[in-house]
Amino acid sequence: MSRAAPIARTARHPAFRMAMADLAGTSVGIGAWGLVTGVVMVKSGMPVGLAVLMSLLVYAGSAQLAVVPLLAAGAPLWVIWLTASCVNLRFVIFSSMWRSYFAHLPLRQRLAIGYFSGDVIYVAFMQRFPEQRPQPEQVPYFWGAAATNWLAWQGASMVGIVLANAVPLSWGLGFAGVLALVGVLLSLLFDRATWLAAGVAATAAIAAFALPLKLNILVAIAAAVAVGLLIEALEKHRQPPDVVLVPPKATLPPEEKRRVAAGDEVPLREEEHP
Questions:
Q1: What residues contact 147, with CB distance under 8 A and at least 6 apart?
Q2: What distance in Å separates the CA atoms of residue 102 and residue 138, rounded to the nearest whole number?
Q3: Per-residue model confidence as pLDDT tens digits over 87-121
Q4: Strands 242-246 and 265-269
Q5: How far is CA 217 from the centre of its chain?
């Protein structure tokens, strides 16, 4: 069987088309964000070839927008790396959630999922599959969302890179980028914890605005992550674990063992009667 056959089968799956429909609206904001990022990279002095390479390899709009001004300002390399790492800390949290759905997949597929993962993909996926257990339609849904998001970003980013020198700064694309980010941000605020983390991040960024080299971004991210982890710990502490009945001689599957080790489940073995 050729390698193209599984790809074609995934693309024909109804969940693949469902994901494309779910992300059709947010892809407009993602495209605007990608366009602005492409323009900003070239306007900051980055060669076109390097900008294209960065868009394809990094594929992280918030990290790109955060480090490009630092690169242009000649900031120390440790500041650039630390900023990019902090901006992308949320993907550590995302990956811990993805594990419940994709841990059974081969390493190559999990690495591909890690590359194509994104904020809006995560939100759309969790809304469709709130129950953390593998289902057959989850992989096609993820790739439908990933394809829509990747094409919207890379297509618009390439247009921005190629046409950057033809776009005057007076068009105010920086403000357009902010509006695009606000639109994407609002789609991610779906519960009390995310709203609170966003409020703390905004407050911290304003309070630390006077710090050099845009270090207020790092302060805001650290504050938001700390608040998010605290809320998650408190909610997990308040929520009692699930009780699972286990047959007398049965062994728990690996996923159940992970949930027991994490304190999410309590196994209750049934008695064996003669």
A1: 16, 20
A2: 9
A3: 887 788 788 888 889 998 999 999 999 999 988 89
A4: parallel
A5: 18
